[in-house]
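# nightly structure sweep
# worker-07 picked up a monomer target from the shared queue
# config: single-sequence mode, recycle default, output format = structure tokens
# input follows
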Amino acid sequence: MKIKFFCPGWGAEKIPFKDFLVQVKNDGFDGVEISLPMEKKMRDEWLLRINDLGLELIVQHHETDHGTYQKYLPEFTDRLYWLAEAKPLFINSQTGKDFFSFEENCALIANADEIEQKTGVQILHETHRGKFSFACNLMPPYLDTFPNMKITADFSHWVNVSESLLEFQQKTIDKIIPNVYHIHSRVGYQEGPQVNDPRAPENKEFLNRHFEWWDAIIKERIKAGDSDFTITPEFGPQPYMPLLPFTQQAVSNQWEINKFMMTLLKSRYSTNGEITI
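# output follows
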């Protein structure tokens, strides 16, 4: 199985898009994971630039500002259809709200399934604070209802929400892992979704715990016979990146950390592009 690495657009918004893509290419990423503009001309220009550089594309559906299910649903639907027009590898969706009812969140997941069937573009649901998937312990009923649900694993959120390294929720993790098809390789800790620097020795415990989950996911996809797998190193900018008081200087360089995570994971998992774990 071959693992492909994607660079997040999150945090690079101030870089001209063409320069961002060139840097992504030069640093050895296989593609980008980004949201797309809602204006057709700009979206198509972005897609052309991505294609010209031979990069692959994962698109994101992220936060909406609507506080009711009735307002959320039409925007969610329209946005997913718009993103699917780009024909990405898949759509990574931050779906639903933590305060929507179970039935409302299920209706959104079912809606995403229908859009996937109509467009032929897979839709993965990210484990994320504030969404239907905000806590590990709440996932089993959703998986019971949607046993074929495809998940993007960003377990750093669950570590933060539970204020633990999920030591007592391994059975639930084991239930979820077969449904994971993409990883956001950010490292969280009990009081936050992102350690200040995964290279620091004081964060080794947290990195190793996330490795346990990522290793298990990779092994599961190999067992399933998948030919490739995708990972996005997704350490983020402010406010995920801690800042020094008064000067507001970031304590670490986001881009360099994401490059480090890609290199570290390549070393851990592959030789000549083929996984060896």
